Amino acid sequence: MTSRWPRWGLAVLLAGTAAVYLPNLSESGYGNAFYAAAAQAGSRSWSAWFFGSLDAGDFITVDKPPASLWVTGLSVRVFGMNSWAVLAPQAVMGVAAVGTLVAAVRRAVPDLDQGAAAGLIAGAVLACTPAAALVFRFNNPDALLVLLLVVAAYCLARAVQAASWRWLAAVGLVMGAAFLTKMLQGFLVLPGFGLAYLVAAPTTWRSRLLHVAAGAAALVLAAGWWVLAVQLTPVGSRPYVGGSTDDSVLNLAFGYNGMSRLVGRGSDWDGPTLGPRSTATGLHRLFVTEMANEISWLLPAALFAVAYGAYLAARGRLDRTEWAALLSWGGWLLVTSLVFSLMNGTIHPYYTAAMAPAVGATVGLGCMWAWRFRAAWDGRLAMVALTGLGAWWSWILLHQNHFGPRWLPGVVLATWLVASVSILVGRLKPMTAGLVAGAAAAVAGTVAFTFATVATPHHGAVPTAVAGPGQSPHTVGGWTGDEATNPTLAAMLTATTTRWSAATNGSQSAAALELATGTSVMAIGGWSGDPTPTLAQFVDDVHAGRVAYYVEAGRGGAARPEGPVIRSENHGPSHVREIADWVDAHYPGIPVGTSLVYRLSP
Questions:
Q1: pLDDT tens profile 253-303
Q2: Residues 6+ apart with CB under 8 A from 80
Q3: SS3 for 407?
């Protein structure tokens, strides 16, 4: 008779995750206004929804592919433009990711009860990782990316188990969707996935290679159809591909979202101020400052679990599906960790949410293997090491962040010390009690920090988990001033009937104006200094009556000095300055709040 406790355990875990992720979403407003404005645009225009445009007028796309916006755009279309419609889909994705991770890890273990235990531990770790709690309550694309990667891992587990090319093709299809979510970042899991199938699938080498080829073909198909559709659409019938230098999705994928992320790129413009960046490159990066707070709580334990699994595999003590899981999850963890640690381009701490499923899976498998071999000295030492690494690192992070009561770090470490004695020298019941106490000490830090993350409202472009003393819990970047809150400016734009109610300098200002007015706003220069529009193109749009106002956000406003406007040479890329100068030379500007507003059409 099949045991019922795994089902009840899964039900409790999913209910608990939903209870943590879903409440009080409105405290974060629209979260990231950039993506919220794009979701609003997609709810008003199917073309904007398909291309991932920032505005319903289809001037420019966001700097990522549109898969995550397809979800939020449909949600806003159905439920209206409100905080719940924008943020709840990500919370639901979080619950789905936890449940799928449980299923994926459970399938790797032949013993049903042991597999269920490993899966539930993995799911709980994912749910209680601060980076995961952050992105699953926010509208950046990372929530959908994490869900898709976990679904792909589940399909891989099924493929390895049965040597099934169909399930491997499903992996490719899901990975293609991951590409349409955040492009090449999703592919960091592929080395581990490919190695696991090639080494562990129960079939011939020839069949394995053919199956991998089928999976690769499915990936290209799933990722390429949208790319091809964009490239085949005439330029005048679609928006500019934001983030690219040549209006090409391939340039966006391999340039701005590809090599420039790895090696950095030179630019005459640094873009909007986006708040705290990561530390210098190096293997220490994931263990210091904000990255440590969001992902590293159980990372030392996860790395030990990978090493312990390799030790067991070398001694022939793991089943075929288990060492396949070790290769896939361990490869995911190691490759992603190395890339995030060593990349020189733009990286933000919340990117590390993509590591959370691998941390959960390796910790869950490691704990299960240590318990399985508890009668042997190496199993007990592994239990002590897994709990000890978690408790020790929690002690350090809690102390460094001055988080919680002053006595908490000491209690965490003392609890583990007592528990480790019970694990090493006790019989079954004392060992079990010691293991429970040690596990509680190991996860105390990440659980507490996750709950604090959930209780913190997050806004802006680069959210961080929890605000420390003197810090803001969010970063609002860009040149925006009061565009989102000025009723006079909103009334002016709302009354327009042109294709774009206004043009403004940059995507942050455009997004704020769109959310405040429900109109389409032309984001000159896009998010990252995109070379669109040229001055000639903008002049044509103005003379054709397609733009009603020009709003120069954060320049002049109520405090505008007498005489000509003097602009800093560092204020945006050259074509943005050129357009602003042309507008100022041909139209009178009036201060409206913190912005200068020019009427371009009668």
A1: 998 888 888 887 644 344 444 444 456 889 999 999 999 999 999 999 999
A2: none
A3: coil
